[in-house]
Amino acid sequence: MSAINRNKLFIASCLSLLVTSLSFGIRAGILGTLGDQFHLDKAQLGTIAATAFWGFPLAVIFGGIVVDIIGMKRLLIMAFVFHLAGIILTIFAGQFSSPYAALFTSTLLIGLANGTVEAACNPLVVSLYPEDKTTKLNHFHLWFPGGIVIGTLLVFLLNKINIGWQVQVGLMIIPTLLYGFLFSKLKFPVTERVSSGVSTGQMYKSLLNPLFIIMIILMFGTAITELFTGQWIDVLLKNVSDNAILLLTIETGVMVIGRGFAEPVVHRFSPTGVLLLSAIFSALGLYLLGHTSGYMLFIGALFFGIGVCYFWPCMLGFVSENLPKTGAVGINLLGGAGMFAVSVYTIFMGSHYDQLLSSRLTPGSNLKDYMEAPPGSEMANALDEAKKAAGPEIINTTLIIPLILIVAFTILFFYMRGRKKPTLQTSVIA
């Protein structure tokens, strides 16, 4: 254990998550541009965006099953290969006869890479810091919104100076090469479950715990609330605000700060208390985003950022602390379930968005004709007005989810009061 440098491993983990988040931030910023350049409708864009979300659960669930067998290091080398291939294929998507197919495949590869990173790094962080799991998971996961802030600002600034989207995507290669190099040189510990002597049979039996099943269901809601809104905010509010992508930057900036100061918050309110407050602020933020315009949208983004800030790491931390025998499979199954829910919801909402647009245009007209109409034309202006109404309507539909979560987390908060956390006997790595 003395040869394991947990600080360097943690830094490399953060770099790998940075690439994961850059892929979300940059893709969110260029999604509309890709649609315009390759004449893709919102259903196609929704399918492309959703591919990352269902590629993620495939990788994170499979990775959670095999991580104790092949080790975290091999998984992270696989993530490096998937990331590099996905980035390169995205850059050259326009060179293929079907750009849609190329973008679909590249997004799938990046989704697989993102899921593999989570499958290895979540149990790695728990193994490195068994004495403070939820706090360190928050510190690790701050690089997800952190990368989105960096990515969206890069897109915003590079668009202003007319730097193409291919260069924007290509910037992700730099941290990808860095984390691949670092992980290839470092020694890894075994997972917490293995070091504590919990058998594989005990781990899988723990997955049938009713509390774990409830957390899986709640993860559907927290993941959709956070990730669907973040990935689509530029598309949904582009015609409501001139700086829609900056709404995502504000939201994720708040998340970075909040996760960086997670320790006193989590210790003061407990993970369940934090999750309840998160649902309340998320609902308030979505309400403002769906019912206001102008500067109030930025207030909505601020509240929404406070709301979703702790969702993902505190859900993982709750399971790791209260259901530790579920091991790496439990953590990764939770994350995979969340991403799968986002993928299904994104596909459904992409089609619903197109239906909302069509309902506000001339009956019987072809939506694609409106999308290809020259800027400033009557058809283009009509489409802009339809988008201005349809985007907030999608957000208002999504608002139902955190309202349900408020009730669920209130029940969970009172249920968990007074319950003693189970512990595993593990050694802390120096």
Architecture overview:
By secondary structure, this protein is mostly helical. Helices cover 80% and strands 0% of the residues. It has helices at residues 6-38, 42-70, 72-91, 99-128, 133-141, 143-160, 165-170, 173-185, 192-195, 200-206, 210-237, 244-260, 262-291, 296-308, 311-322, 327-359, 367-371, 378-398, 400-416. Helix 1 crosses helix 11 (210-237) and helix 13 packs across helix 18 (378-398). It starts with 5 loop residues before the first helix and ends in a 14-residue tail after the last helix.
Question: What are the main properties of this structure?
Answer:
430 residues, mainly alpha, Growth Hormone, Chain: A
Topology:
Blueprint: H1 6-38, H2 42-70, H3 72-91, H4 99-128, H5 133-141, H6 143-160, H7 165-170, H8 173-185, H9 192-195, H10 200-206, H11 210-237, H12 244-260, H13 262-291, H14 296-308, H15 311-322, H16 327-359, H17 367-371, H18 378-398, H19 400-416
Helix pairs in contact: 1-2, 1-4, 1-6, 1-8, 1-11, 2-3, 2-4, 2-16, 3-4, 3-8, 4-16, 5-13, 5-15, 6-12, 11-12, 11-15, 11-16, 11-18, 11-19, 12-14, 13-14, 13-15, 13-18, 13-19, 15-16, 16-18
Concise account of the structure shown:
The protein has 430 residues and is an all-alpha fold. It has one domain (6-416): Growth Hormone, Chain: A (Up-down Bundle).
Helicity range? over 70%
CATH architecture: Up-down Bundle
Mean pLDDT: 85
Binned strand content = under 5%
User: Main beta sheet: strand number and arrangement?
Assistant: none
Write down the Rg.
21 Å
Molecular shape: globular
Flag low-confidence runs: none
Q: What count of helical segments does DSSP give?
A: 19
Oligomer: single chain
Q: SS-based structural class?
A: mainly alpha
